Structure formats: structure tokens, C-alpha cells
Amino acid sequence: MNIKSLLLGSAAALIAVSGARAADAVVVAEPEPAEYVKICDVYGAGYFYIPGTETCLRIGGYIRYDAGVGDVGSFDGVNNVPDHQDGDSQDTFYKNARFTLRTWTGQETELGTLKTFTETRFNFGNSSGDYLNQAASNANDWQGRNKSLSLRYAWIQLGGLRVGKDDTAFDTFIGYAGSVIQDTLVPYGGQESNVVQYYFDAGNGFSAVVSLEEGAGAVGTIDSYVPHVVGGVKYKGDWGAVTGVVAYDSNYEEVAGKVRLDVNVSKEFSLFVMGGYGTDDNLTDNAGNAIDASGRGFYKQWGGNWAIWGGGTYKFNEKTAFNAQVSYDDWKNLGVAANVAYTVVPGFTVTAEVDYLNAGKFGDADFNNWTKANKKSSLGGILRFQRSF
What we know:
Layout: H1 3-25, E1 48-49, E2 56-70, E3 81-82, E4 89-90, E5 94-109, E6 112-125, E7 145-146, E8 150-158, E9 161-167, H2 169-172, E10 192-203, E11 206-213, H3 217-220, E12 228-237, E13 240-249, E14 254-264, E15 269-278, E16 306-315, E17 320-329, E18 334-345, E19 348-359, E20 376-388
Antiparallel strand pairs: 1-2, 2-5, 2-20, 3-4, 5-6, 6-7, 6-8, 8-9, 9-10, 10-11, 11-12, 12-13, 13-14, 14-15, 15-16, 16-17, 17-18, 18-19, 19-20
């Protein structure tokens, strides 16, 4: 082998090695498979798995716009508004725009289903104002403004145990009143509270609840380590349901209860009737300090000892429903509400409602100026646009 052959052979070997290394350098690793969001159909429509977990999440809510007129309840014509040119008092609309964000989660565990629910509300609009009385706390409420942010619900539930912020079981377990917007012309319960609850499902349509509650507001929030207590039982069938709840108000050591009958007359027509009774021996003990001059408390929100609510829904077709409710209490407060709800397209509903209130004792914020002989009649209405998602 001569020098020339040796040099040619070495060069060929180097080229082969270099070519192999160059080929190795351009090899690209296989990409990791993408982890797409997966649908979770265990808890109903709208849930999906949070990537990398066994938790199912649903995000929803609604956008709502209300326009109200008149002087009924919370949908007041905003009275005593100053005219911008001459300052004279005049009436105008009640307006409110709301964005509500809701979240639901669900996950199966060895101790049962772990669930959460939250609802946060953002509002812009006005309320009933008393411009002529500048000393009043609501003197400027007629002005359009961003209202306070509201955490409406925030609870955790494992199996039958629920803790967090919810409406009182005095309302949620037995059900709110009718499907009208203004269902509290005669009020029926305390609503918002921190709660510790346990739900029992006995099967065959029977269920029960026990709830320890904090209450809310100056009158309703507990003033010691003793909680308010609510208990309820229910039987539900294809025909409807029978429910009863009892509440102990630890602040005043008073008891209130409600019973309700729901009947599905047909696929299109449903009716309900609900009666309430509550004691009030101690509810006016602090009236001189204006703590509870109304004589009501957290649970027995209606006037006097007893009250009754009744109403129903008739569905004309898939898009249109008529809802009505009548309520009356021991203080001769009479409330009538009726509306027509029309679903323009799925998820978008327009509701037009008329409300009437004939108020007896304490029919005004100034309780001391009212007696059982006084009456105050008022009429109002509201138009609501709501997009739910």
C-alpha cells in the first residue's frame, strides 16, 4: 500500500464519519402528545375535566338588564329625584345591569362526591332614593353607579356535608316562593348565611336536612356561640312534593316553620301553596333601640304570626310561560305578582311583570307611623332581559 492509497482511504473514512454525525444532528425528537380538554358528563351538561386532574369544572352565569317603574318593593320608581334644570322632585326608572359569574366543580372520592359552588355578582344601576330628605341614608341612591360586589354563594360539599355561604335551609330546602321576579312582596325567610349543613337522602323520595346557621344583618347575625338551627323533611314524587321546615332563632329564642305542597297538574301546569307560622313573644324587646322594631327576626320575616303564599306556572309552549303568585300575612299585607316569560332563543329570555302591594302594618320604612288600620297600595312593573350561559 503506497502513501497515496493510504491518504485516500483516510479521507473517505473521515467523510463517512462526518456524514453520520451530520445526519444525527438533524434528528428531531418526537413531540409530546397534546393533552386536550375532555368532556365530563358525570354531573350534567357543561362540565369538563381540569387537565391533569379528576376534577370536573363548569363555568356559567348570566347577564341581566332590568328596567322598573312604580313604587313596589325593590323595583321602585326612583322617587324624589331632582330635576336637573329647576330642582323639582320627580320620578324616574329603576335600572340595574348585572353580570353574574358561577362555577361548579365535582369529583368522586372514597367519602362520596366532593362538590363546590360559587356565585359572584357585579351590579351597575340605581336604587330607591329620597333626595328631598338629605339626612336619609339613601339620599343619593337614585344616582346610577357601580354597586358593591356581592359574593352570593361559596360552599363546599362532601357527601351530605355542606359548609360555607349559602341561603338558609329555611328557604333552599322547602323552595323559594313562585317563579315571579318580585316573590317577596310578603317575605318568607332570611336567605344569606354562613352554614354548616347535613343532607340525608333516605331513598324512595324521602330526604331531610339539619343546618347550623350564622344569619346576616343587624337583626339576623347570631349574638352568642349558639347558632340558629334549621331542620326539614321532604317527600318528592312524580306528582309533586310535600315539604316542612322549622327554624330556631337563637337571638330571640323564637321558632318559625313553613309547610309546602307542590302539585304537577300536568306537563304544562304546576301549582304550589306554602304556609308559615312563627312565634314573636321576644321580637320587639329591643324596639326602643331600633334593632328589630319591625317585630320579625331572621326567619319569620312576614308580618304577624302567620302568612300564606300560593301560585303557579302555565307553559303555553316551549317558549312562553305565565307565572303568578298571591301572598298574604297576619298584618294584612297583600302581594300579587304576575308575569309572562318569553324565551326568544335558547339562553335568552325576556320577562314582563306587574306587581301590586297593599301594605298593612309596617307598610313603610318608618315603622312607627303605621298601625294595623293603615293601608298603602302601590303598583309597579319590571321588564327584564336575561342571557344565561
